[in-house]
Request: fold
Amino acid sequence: MTQLALVIDLNVCVGCHACVTSCKEWNTSGWAGPLVDQNPYEGSPTGTFFNRVQTFEIGTFPNTETVHFPKSCLHCEEPPCVPVCPTGASYKRPDNGVVLVDYDKCIGCKYCSWACPYGARELDAQQKVMKKCTLCIDRITDAKLSERDRKPSCVLACPANARLFGDVHDPDSEVSIAIRERGGYQLMPEWGTKPANHYLPRRKTRMHIDPEELTRVDNPWRKEDLTDYTGEETLDDVAW
Amino acid sequence: MHPAFSVIFLTTLLGAGQGLYLAMVTGQLYAVARFLPAQADQFYAVGSLVALLLLIAGLGASFFHLGRPERAWRAAAMWRTSWLSREVIVLPIVMALVFAYGVAHWFEWTQPLFQVGAALQVDLTLLLGVLGTIASLALFVCTAMIYAAVRFLQEWHTPLTVSNFLFLGAASGFMLAAAYSAYIGNPLVTFYGTWAVILTLVGLASRLAHLRRNARLKHKSTVQTAIGVRHASVVQKAQGATGGSFNTREFFHGRSQSLLERLRTVYLVLVFPIPVLLIGLSYLIGSSNLPIIAFFVQFAGLLIERWSFFAEARHPQNLYYQSVA
Reply:
C-alpha cells in the first residue's frame, strides 16, 4: 500500500519560508482554497496556513544552534483526527494514505483539531471549515502534469532541496532511503500516531576557530607592507 | 485550551436538565415504593418540562460552537468511532423520552399496564422513566467521553472526567428539584435537598481527586519529542507568523496562572460548601428561598468549574507555540 509523505532535512532547511509562501499560493487558488488572511496590513494579521516554519534555538550561548522547523500535517498512519470526526468529513485516502477533509461535510466543530497532538489543523476563519495540508493532492494526482511537476508545491519551491517527497512504504524510494540512511525520525513518537512525514536530523559539524580570528586586528596587508622605507618614490607618491 | 462559552453552557445546562429529570424519576420511584407521599402528576410533568427546556437550551448553545451549524444533521454519521456523534444521537433520544414522560404525566396516562410481583403496578410513566434514566446516564457518558477520549489532553483523559460530569450534573439537577419543590411548597424539599447534598459531596470527592491527579500529572510530550532534538535547552525564537493564528487562539486560555488559581478557589466554594450550607440552613429555619438560592449559586459555580476544566488542559501542540504558552 502506498503512503505518500514528506521527508524534511533539518540539516539543510535555512528557514526562508519559500515552502510556506508557495504552499499558500498554490492552495489558496486551488482545490483547497481560499486560505484567507484577515487584517493583512494591520496590527494583528492572521490567516490560514497549511505549513509554517518555526525557529528554535538549541543550547546556550555561545554554543547554540538554530533549527528551522517546517511543520505541516504529518499524514499519520494512525490518524487520531479521523475517528473523532462526527460527520466523516475527515478521512484518510486508502489509495495513497493522504489525510484529507471533505469541506462539504465539515461542520467546523474543531474536534479533530483537539485530537491532533501536532496542531496541524486550522479552522478557516472565512469558510468555517477545518483545513490542513493536502500534500497538494490536486497536483500529485494530476495525470496531465509531467512527472517532475507531480509533487507538492513546497517541495518544488524549496531552494535548498530540504524537502523530499515519495512513498515511505516503498523501500527503494528516495524518501525511504533517506529515512533509513540518514536517521529519519517521527515527531512525538510516544503517541503511537505513526506520522508518515519524517525529519532528517541535523548533522554534527565541528569547526576549528583560531582565537585570533575572534579578535579584530590590524589589516594584515598593512602589516606586510611595513617594509623599510628608504625615501625612493613609491606607488603612493605618484600624482595621478 | 480556550474555554468556549458555547461548550461551557452546553455541558452545564445538559447536566442540570438530565439531573432534574433523574430527580423527577427518582421521586416517582420513591412514591411507587411508598417511601414518599405520591405527588400530583402535574408535579412530574412540569418538572420534566423544565428539564426539557434546559436540554433545549443546551442543544442551542452547542450550535454556537459550530462553524457550519446548518450542517449539524450530518454529525450523527460516525457513531461507531466518534463520541461526539454518539452524543448527537443520544441527546434527541433523551429529549424525546423526557418529553414523553412529561406528556404521559400531564395527561395522567397512569393506568397500570401490567403487574410485577405482588404490588408493583407498572404504568406508562414508569416505563418511560426507566428508559429515560438509562438514556440520561448514557448521555452523561457520551458528553464526558468527548473530552475524556482525547488521549493527548492528559488532563481530560481519565475516568474522573466522566464521574465529574455525572455527579456534578446530577447534583445541580437535584438541587434544582429541591428549589422547584420549595418554590411550589411541596414536602419533597428535604428529600431532594438531601440527595442534592449527597451528590454534591460525591462530586466534591471526584473533582478533588481529579485536581490532585492533574497536579501530579507528568506530560508525555516535551519540546524535545515535539521537534525531535535531544538537548536539554530548546527555546523557540519564532512561531512562523507575525500575528496570531488558529493555533494560538484555540489552544490557550490567555489568562494568568493566578487568575486560574483564584477561579479554582471560587468554584470550589460556590459549587460545594455554600449550597450544602444553604440546604442545611433551609431545613433549620424552614425557608423556601434558600434552596432556590442554593441552586443558582451552585450553577454559577459550575459555569466557572467548566471554564477551569477547559482552561487547565494543556494541549501538546502548545509546545510549538512557546511564546504564547
Observations:
- DSSP finds eleven helices and three strands in chain B.
- Chain B has one domain: 5-217+249-316.
